[in-house]
Amino acid sequence: MRRARISQIGLLTLLLVFTLGSADTGVRYNDLSHKMMCACGCGQVLGECNHLGCPDSEQMLHELRTDISKGQSDTAILEAFQAKYGPTILAAPMLTKFNIVAWVVPPVVLLLGIFGTFALVRKWRLRTVATPAPSAVRGFDRIRDQIRKETEI
Amino acid sequence: MSTITCALLLIGIFAYVFWPEHRVEAQTQKTRLDFLRERKDVIYDNLRDLNFEYRAGKYPEEDYQAQRAALENEAAETIAEIELLERQGLTHSPKLSS
Amino acid sequence: MPTLGSFALLLALALSGYNLVAGAIALRQLATGARGRVSPERLAETARRAGIGSFIAVTAAAFALVWAAFTNDFSVAYILHHSNRALPTSYKFAALWSGQEGSLLLWAWLLTGYGFLLRLRHKVDVKLTAYASTILAGIQVFFLLLLNFAAPPFSLVSGTIPQDGFGLNPLLQYPEMVIHPPMLYLGYFGFSVPFAFALGALMMRYPGEKWIHITRRWTMVTWLFLTCGIFLGAHWAYSVLGWGGYWGWDPVENASLMPWLTGTAFLHSVMMQEKRGMMKHWNVWLIFSTFALSILGTLLTRSGLVSSVHAFAQSSIGSWFWAFLVIVLAVCLFTYVLQRDHLKSEHKLESLVSRESSFLFNNLVLLAACFTILWGTLFPVISEYVQGNKVTVGPPFYNRVAVPIGLFLLFLTGIGPLLAWRSSSFKSIRKNFILPVVAAFVTAIVLIATGMRPWQDSGAFYSLVAWSLAAMVTVAVGSEFLRGARVIQRHTGQNLFASTIQLTRRNTRRYGGYIVHFGVVVIFIGLAGSAFNQSKEQELNYKQSMTMGPYRIECLDYSQDSNPNYDTEYALLDVYRSGKKITQLAPEKRFYQASQTTSTIVANHSTLAWDLYVIYAGKDPDNGQPIIKVFLNPLVAWIWIGVIIVVLGTFVALIPNMSAALAASRSRVQVAEAPVLAATKGGN
Q1: pLDDT in tens, C201-212
Q2: I need a labelling partner for C241 at 20 to 30 A (CA). Which of C153, C177, C428, C602 fits?
């Protein structure tokens, strides 16, 4: 019973951890600019692209600002950018169609791994740790005394 | 200039590789005795560790007793075999550990 | 000189080939008892020496390339493209690894260097080393084939030789860049040594686990190199790229992290094999995959399969790496299938609360992290295959998916040390857990009380968790030292400090490892600070100022300058804190003539609390005023401090144990006594 409750809480926490979003509207600009890449090919996130004379970042950030001031939703803005610059403009795939796979596979693998490991440990586990009988080796007592002397800390 | 350097490099390395060496290290197969001695060292380490961790308060009494007994049995069997082999004079390996 | 270089590379290939073939024949003859004209031992000895010779030959080639860089020999195409006359001397040296061909040459050199050491020290175990040396020779052959036929570093410029070279990529003209790549490569290729030993031990059905003992230092040193390489790269990115961060989840960065993760897993789980004869199958595959991942990383970044910021020429060598990877995996699989009965475990896992099972979970999490990164790196390729278009899998993905896994790992860092080998119940160790858990909760409460709002955004939540876990692990590691030291104290009567020292010296690997764990905690403390980074961009005219956190930044001057290597624009900024001037910063923007590229020189005022990180973002085209971008990055210094602790901890772990020496001296006394005892017993 208690174990079930613990695992439920664990699952909930995991779910929470993986789905926690950043929702504060005050930082939307900063947020969205970090959800897209710069189109110039510098390989940096839009909000951090800083190289001199970048042909794209200024204009893209300007578009972003206008879109936000127009009151568009995050998804709408991201979709508009995607339509304009192609799907690689998003810094991470959105939760659509096949792209969901990108997000789902790693946590699933981790969870499967955890369950697998638990199952494995359970299978391996020996029932008892009964004190084994003294070995039948000849002169065991002498050898054991020697061992004890030599393995004192 | 570079041709000479190349030639020197070639000759030097070839001489080094194929110069007949009389004391070639023999590729001895590890003997049972070597193996047992390694094994004994490992079990000893485990035992020392066990004793130490027990004193540091990381084992319940019954756990400690059971595991010490198991490890001691294992060590005793190993040592008994070592002694047997040594008595039979099967010491192939010249390097004696302790 | 180019002639010498090309010749030396060809010679090195011949020597490695000889090492491989003659070594394999000799080992085969020794295994089957067959005899050729030459005795197999002699043949094996010539193979070993050919391996040593290949190092000398590759050294000559590397020397030839560096020489060409120093003498401005622009007839060599590689030097023409990666150096110029005005380049400072130390960076001419770096030209060796600033491009494809040169870095392959550096790899070959480091690889043969490792092989050289291994072959010199062959007396540790002549037969096992012969196997490892032959396997390494196989790897050498691949790299030397590449260097001779696919990416020759000494190819000459056709037509007239230009007066000056195109210069070194300015991003690489930075002190860390001189040591970061060699460190990283030392890390990548260092794993080929434990790999070769593991594969060799499996091939010859090596009895016992001594090979782990032999390769232990290799693995640790390699791990250390890789760790240093990764963090030097992060520090370089932070100080040079000027975007205020140190890790961008770029494919090349990921490529270095993947073998690090599996290597770390191997370092842990191999202890279970060494101590308890367990997990043999697992360990063999861990080291196989670590090696394969270091190859795969190279493949990913050099073949143009995934796009990366790291500007390596995309070339045909990708297919070579594919072929090599397939061969390596085939050899591993074949050997494994043939010899897997040799890997029977001697023990079984006995309980869920033993250190063994914590190692199991640590391995699981490290591998899950590795898989996540591999998945993220390869997903664009998969996506293109499945839905026909590439997607970007960038920082937001990893921050969401990899960060929780990282925190789980941090948690295990603290739990592992508290558990004992084979302990079967939680009963006696429960009290050991109380203090760390309390520490975690107290930290969380204090942080919330001081204004952290973990429920508002994920960054704050993760940071709160990270810092609470950091407190937990620190207390756990600390109490572990204390408990051990108390035992020594009771035993010897020394004071606590001396006891702690003695404790560490008795089992350097374990307590060195704990120091490494603590270093990891410190790194995490620093990483978690990134959730609270702030930045601001503003034009600053003379005497104008801006504020950032507790700092006020005032523009004293801005100007430009030029020297033969580059032109520069910079601003002189005075930094005030509570009305007092504390420092002057001079962020720069440089324009390099030879390569026609610009680069940012960051000005950073680093304190333990935060870094004031200032970049010169250029001039406003309308009024010519400098645009200054300021970041306030909390706790970054702790990342570098943590790395230093990790390095120190690894050094401690590399020191031989004192107890072994003591035990030996003690048992010598006993050996001397034993005959007497036996004699008296016999007499009775």
Answers
A1: 999 888 888 888
A2: C153
